[in-house]
Amino acid sequence: MQETRLHSREKILFFNKEYISEFVYGGIDGAITTFAVVAGAEGAGLDLSIVIILGLANLIADGFSMSVGNFFSTKAEMDSFERHRQVEYWEVQHLREKEIQEIRDIYAAKGFKGALLEQVVEVITSNEDVWVDTMMKEELEMVRSDKTPYKTAGMTFLSFIVVGSVPLLSYLFANTNYIQQDLFLISCLLTALALGIVGSFKSMVTGKNLFFGILETLTLGGLAAFLAFFVGDVLEKILL
Fold first, then answer.
1. SS3 category, 88
2. Can you give the pLDDT at residue 3?
3. Spatial separation of the C-alpha atoms in residues 112 and 121, rounded to whole Å
């Protein structure tokens, strides 16, 4: 268990490895959804100020919503783990023989036999905490996570805002030297770069090939942007 915790606290660049997944998926969602809003607004031919307003509103609202969802999801997992853990303590204390037999069955299924099996059972059931931990892992397949709801939510929100703001940068810092079509092209390039970087982090989390991780992320982002631009263009022709 200690080795697992130390492994989870390793860092990739400046991130704790255990929170990389929150950064990755928050960043991907932030970049894709914000860029989809920008593409939809461009497809509808909306003014620069409208693009910025819609983009920022989406960025803040969706980022907060995603982080809140992450918070409650992580908290629910922790609460479920503790609830099942308390049930196991009660069963160990009140249904001792039944729980001993369950430990015996678990390790018999692993190939332990005879005196060695009984020795293993005796060692495990001699310590209530070890006994409960074993039942949680082997019977319920539940392992306590070191992640906290506040940190997962914070990392999700941070990555959503930071990466999700990239599609808006060209509009936020626009000047008279650029027409809006140029700003959208710059936004496309910046978003592709951001998604490529996040895609490389995703490959670290999933263990996939780096090239395919980046390609997959870029493809999803491009598809979302195309659909948003197409819908915006169609609605602009119908409604405006």
1. helix
2. 41
3. 10
